């Protein structure tokens, strides 16, 4: 009978195992704290949104939309992957890192479109179809928290109300003929 050595019993392997488990958890915690800091300390802004692609508006349980920044974005095929930002204070679109702008949303040009990482919102599956109709009906907006050029979606608004409140409202009744 031969004795087998348990690889986890060595001190080096045990330390590696602890590191391998703890490292992703610490990274996730840091990511969550960063997002929460933007939400809690950022300036609040509401921007209109419209449906992006009616054939693929729902990707999983994410509602995908275009954000109306109030500026004409100048992303073209020549500026693909270029760093850019929207300066909300003076309503301009600029290339490069955020500078000389009070309230800005940083992003980049992707496929001739300005993308800031706020173009989708998670919704429960049971509410997806109804919310899709509101976004396609152009009566939707998003509430953002913005800090140092980074924007985080706080809420999806339908006719100025949180989508959670709007879903709870009874549908207007049809008038009798």
Question: In words, what does this structure look like?
Answer:
By secondary structure, the chain is of the alpha+beta class. Helix content is 26%, strand content 33%. It is built from three helices and eleven strands, in the order H-E-E-E-E-E-E-E-E-H-E-E-E-H. A hairpin with a 2-residue loop joins strand 10 and strand 11. It is globular.
Note the topology:
Elements: H1 11-41, E1 43-51, E2 58-59, E3 62-68, E4 83-87, E5 92-95, E6 104-110, E7 113-115, E8 120-122, H2 128-136, E9 140-147, E10 150-158, E11 161-162, H3 163-168
Antiparallel strand pairs: 1-3, 1-9, 2-3, 3-8, 4-5, 4-6, 6-7, 9-10, 10-11
Quick gist of this model?
With 177 residues, this protein is an alpha+beta fold.
Descriptive tags:
177 residues; alpha+beta; 2 domains; 4-stranded antiparallel β-sheet; 26% helix; globular; disordered C terminus
Principal-axes shape call: globular
Low-confidence sequence ranges: 173-177
How many domains would you count in the coordinates?
2
Structural class: alpha+beta
The major β-sheet equals: 7 strands, antiparallel
């Amino acid at each position: 009978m031969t004795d087998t050595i348990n690889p986890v019993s060595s001190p080096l392997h045990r330390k590696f195992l602890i590191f391998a488990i703890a490292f992703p958890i610490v990274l996730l915690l840091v990511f969550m704290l960063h997002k929460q800091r933007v939400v809690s300390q950022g300036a609040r802004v509401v921007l209109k949104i419209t449906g992006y692609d009616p054939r693929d508006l729902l990707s999983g349980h994410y509602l995908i939309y275009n954000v109306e920044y109030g500026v004409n974005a100048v992303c073209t095929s020549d500026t693909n992957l270029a760093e850019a930002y929207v300066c909300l204070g003076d309503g301009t679109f600029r290339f490069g890192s955020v500078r000389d702008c009070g309230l800005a949303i940083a992003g980049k040009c992707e496929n001739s479109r300005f993308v800031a990482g706020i173009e989708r919102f998670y919704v429960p599956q049971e509410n997806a179809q109804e919310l899709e109709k509101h976004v396609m009906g152009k009566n939707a907006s998003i509430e953002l928290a913005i800090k140092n050029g980074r924007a985080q979606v706080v809420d999806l608004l339908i006719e100025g109300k949180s989508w959670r409140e709007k879903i709870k409202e009874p549908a207007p009744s049809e008038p009798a003929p």
